Amino acid sequence: MSSFDVSSIGKPPLIGPRAKRRHVRSLTGDFPEVDEKGQEKWPRGDEKSWKAALRDIHAEVPEITKSVVTHVQTSLGRAPYNIDDFGAYQAAALSVRDNLIVNWNATQVEYTRKSPKRAYYLSLEFLMGRTLSNALLNLGLLDNYSSSLSSLGFGLEDVLVQERDAALGNGGLGRLAACYLDSSATQELPVWGYGLRYKYGIFQQLIKSDDGTQLEAPDPWLDHQNPWELPRLDVTYEVRFYGHAQRWGEESTGRATWSGGQEVLAVAYDVMIPGYGTKSTNNLRLWESKPKRGFDLQSFNAGNYERAVEASNSAACNHILGKELRLKQQYFWTAASLADMMRRFKNLEKPISEFAEYNAIQLNDTHPTLAIVELMRILLDDEELSWDSAWSIVTNTFFFTNHTVLPEALEKWSVPLMEHLLPRHMQIIFDIVTVEKKFPGDRDRLSRLSLIEEGFPKQVRMANLAVVGSKKVNGVAELHSDLVKKNLFPDFVEFYGKSKFGNVTNGITPRRWLDQCNPALSALITDTLKLDRVTAGRTVKHQNKERLALFVERQLGVKVDANAMFDVQIKRLHEYKRQTLNILGVIHRYLLIKNMTPEEREKVVKKVVFFAGKACPCMCVPFLLTIRLIVNVARVINSDLDTNKYLSLFFLPDYSVSLAEILIPASDISQHISTAGTEASGTSNMKFCLNGGLLVGTVDGANIEIAEEVGEDNVFFFGHLTPDVEDLRYQHTYHPIPVEQKCPALAHVLDTVSSGIFGGDGVYEPLLNTVRQGDFYILTDDFDAYIRSLEMVDEAYADRAEWIKKSIRTTAKMGKFSSDRAIQDYAQEYWNIESIKL
Ligand SMILES: *Cc1c(COP(=O)(O)O)cnc(C)c1O
User: Fold this and answer.
1) Which domains does the chain possess?
2) Is a pLDDT exceeding 70 seen at residue 41?
3) How far is the CA of 785 from the centre of ligand 1 (A)?
4) CA-CA distances (angstroms) from residue 828 to 173, 361, 520, 824?
5) Which residue has its alpha carbon closest to ligand 1 atom 5?
6) Which among 187, 42, 146 has a CA at the least distance from the CA of 824?
7) pTM (2 decimals)?
8) Confidence category of residue 320, pLDDT binned at 50, 70, 90
9) Protein residues whose CB sits closer than 6 Å to any atom of ligand 1
């Protein structure tokens, strides 16, 4: 699709020590250096290009070169002699941004002129990754910028890697939001994203070299000016917290006045989202919190002041933030977003009763559920509508995406906390409960349907609120959407009927996850004239593996054999994703090879295993040991001279979108091995398969639909199915069988870890005990099948020509998993919006 320089594969990698964030280099002086003859020495590039762009001489240089040089001079205030790769990145980014702003304006003017129905995607996370490479690709300017930068003495790759990832989130949910923005703009759909402008992105992960534990460092991603945002200091809204809500009159579901408390200012920052091959450029509006000027200082002690402005502080995971702050973040963001939508709607001068005909709001998980209550508050208290009219507008505006069926991940907020922080919203939630009581049903059913969970304290169930307040609810893959109906909300399905519950299988944008991260494969796909696709496919894969090998060598100082099979598992560390199963499998393989004769070893398929992923530090303590185990197993087996030719293992720190862009194209296989019924969809499975890495996985989430598309003989499935899992857990609790009996191979691996050969002095026992006792994620039940599936991978890999065919077939059959398809589903089946052509 793009004509990005294919030969750059195998050249210096996209990330490397050279890409390390450099603080602006100390200036070497304002004048060019002079050589012995008194001639000016141009430190970089082609002197004529610089001078022409600076208008020092009369000569033609491309507009782009002029624009970059102008930004060096004026925006950065630097002399050309003093520009390093980071300065070149900044100038190039500002120059690209000029294009984006022009397109952005044209798009927004057109939206205003045509006043179509719009959709808003509310997500607490946006995992955008780098923007420059993506913007150049979408604008079709890669080659032009590449040659302009080159004339100024910079390599495009070196410049691109200067950019720091925008990591405003944790994982899949945030990356999904980013892919959906790309697809919405590409399809010229009037969709805006709304999120928070965190001062700190998700933490940077460091691995302590002595014992392999994870350390978390802050990610001050805004330390240098962020060229991709446009501050809208004039777009501000006041957001209230605490205070007092006074009802009017007797009617229980009537109006109220909310006053007092604190007010914080929400300030808008706009991030331009370019579509691919179109001028259409959408908006991601991020809110920053600011203290309100001239506010009541007396009622505002120093402590409160700090807390008032921290609402957009950090994209950390739920639990570290503290409950109150998290709830504050959620309200701050939803209130500002709704106020903004309401202002835009009011400009249309339509009656408020038509709000839902002009606005659709998608809730990405339960985090923005307060928007439902906030819109009720606006319609009741500000617009003075009746309860029924207000509720009808609300339930025609919102749509809710559920992302998990794990009970511990379902959001709940304590009633006393909500009453304290958002007294008016708590009233409205109780009013919804009152109306809800009119539903027929026995007490048990009513308590399951209820928005309030009894207990001390009582809790608001955000998922139930989201279901009740939305027009439609969807899961993110077929299996998951079925589980949402059968296990999570069966009573709601009975009450509202099946049509309220749908499915939109997740998707990924092929721009970032093919064209950008794997230009050679992208070119191969579009080159229909290529006769020998197997040889070409093999070459592309090998080049990507060499690129990764070089990257690892630069990062960790270790050589990696690009001829070995590359086996990758990269995702957030979580028990249900079962990285533990993988590392125990690696140990099993190591012990097998260790016990072989040298002749036997020669027959082994050589393999390199890669892990990456961050562990939220609030996670259950035993599981945090998994990273440590991986790192220490790596230390032992990578230095075992008997075996390290055949098996090696790497944990790459600080997993990010940019790291994924290097690892994924290089994979021969990737692992998606969650306990059946626990992974709602997964999206990295799609990225790997699109890049021709075959899938080893359980019958879970989108793995199932991937197998349907690419054919079961092109994936390696193993393990118990979803309906078995509950029975197995029952068995573990009431009729446990010791692991020695049930799965001797696994017992041997566990004992080996206990024996201390990977160090740790008993430190891993709590982790091993989660497998030996209880085994909630059924490792003991799946281990043998898992090992067998990896043996089948080895067998298949031995026939390399057939393997490459499988790989090419897999890539070719992944069309369904484009986020363009997913966004079309949302636009047609949910939002009812249409494209706006510029
Ligand atoms: C795609 C992606 C994810 C989601 O991965 P899963 O394996 O589906 O959980 C998480 N983080 C990053 C950086 C990604 O690119």
Assistant:
1) 115-129+165-506+823-831 (3.40.50.2000), 510-816 (3.40.50.2000)
2) no
3) 25
4) 22, 14, 34, 6
5) 684
6) 187
7) 0.93
8) low
9) 127, 171-172, 175, 571, 656-657, 660, 682-684, 687
